[in-house]
Amino acid sequence: MSPHLILRIVSKLLIPLIVVFGFYVHFHGDFGPGGGFQAGVIIAVAVILYALIFGMDEARRAVPPVAVRYGAALGVLIYVGTGVLTLFMNGAGEPLNFLDYDALHPDQSHHTGQHYGILLVELGVLTTVTSVMLAIFYAFAGRVPDIKDEDW
Amino acid sequence: MHTDLTQYLDYALIAMLLAVGIAIVRLRNLFAVVMLTGVYSLLSAAWFVSLDAVDVAFTEAAVGAGISTVLMLGAMLLTARESEPAGQKRHWAAFAVVAAAGAALFFAIPDMPVYGDPDSPANSYVGMEYMDRTPDEIAVPNVVTAVLASYRGYDTMGETVVVFSAALGVMLLLGFGTGRREEDEEDEL
């Protein structure tokens, strides 16, 4: 039996909650403190906690380094893509502007497009930040063997 | 004069920050130093909350106390657990730098606006304009998010690219983390 039974059980309970909290921070960023950057860091922390307790190999199986590499670029693409999208969607008939979110939704009086645009670009930030934090963690922690129990 | 009770909380937090800072300088055990820098970040996050800068506090808690501590721990595992005692000469050079920087900061204090001053530069010009216009133009309750993602969308895009390039640099220098580990290499020797 694992010597870290309590740690494993508690972290198994906590990690899903940490991820859900990360998404809450992202989607609630319009209304409260937080946003894509903080949410990305929180989700990366959940994976790092998993890696610390279950080992690097298990973490690499859960979130492969390939996905992390593509994710870092994908986030930037989502952000820039939102900007390009506003150039092509011209709901209000206004002059076209890069990253002008009002073009995303015809409801100009409530600025629904601004909500959509902010959520989309923050999703890009979240994807990049989560991937980058994990990439740096994998690059550092991948170079040392897992810490032995007697070393703690 | 109006007394604000939260100022005593600020004093207590700053005193704790000072104590942790002194402990970090005096300790040799790098594991304890890494943990104390995490504590330092958490204390500054609490202080930012008390200063009503919740967005900054959130970032400080997540990045400073969370990610940085883990990355420093990973970096520490690649080196030694204890730091070598520094030579006496280096002590004095470091002290001179710290004293000069501290003196410059104290010199700058009289130019700072009073905390909460409604006429301070941060509260006077474009900041107030964002506060006035966000409900009409963006219709988002959190003005920080509105400025960050909408008014300054270009800046945040640049920041995202900066974060991406940081990962690119680390990957190019250290590899993708998929290479062989030290223990595997030892087995083959």
Q: Could you describe the 3D structure shown?
A:
The complex is a heterodimer of chains A (152) and B (189). With 152 residues, chain A is mainly alpha-helical. Chain A has one domain (5-151). In chain A, 68% of the residues lie in helices and 0% in strands. Chain A contains five helices and no strands. The mean pLDDT of chain A is 84. Chain B has 189 residues and is mostly helical. Chain B is built from nine helices and no strands. Helix content of chain B is 75%, strand content 0%.
Which percent band covers the strand fraction of chain A? under 5%
Q: What is Rg of chain A?
A: 19 Å
Q: How many H/I helical runs of chain B?
A: 9
CATH architectural type of the largest domain in chain B: Up-down Bundle
Helix-strand makeup class of chain A? mainly alpha
The total domain count of chain B is: 2
Could you say which overall geometry of chain A the principal axes of the C-alpha atoms support? elongated
Uncertain parts of chain B: 183-189
Number of strands of chain B: 0
| Structural class by secondary-structure content of chain B | mainly alpha
Unreliable runs of chain A, pLDDT <50, ≥5 residues?
A: none
Going by CATH, the homologous superfamily of the largest domain in chain B would be NADH-ubiquinone/plastoquinone oxidoreductase chain 6, subunit NuoJ
Annotation keywords:
heterodimer; A: 152 residues; mainly alpha; B: 189 residues; Four Helix Bundle (Hemerythrin (Met), subunit A); 2 domains; 9 helices; 75% helix; disordered C terminus
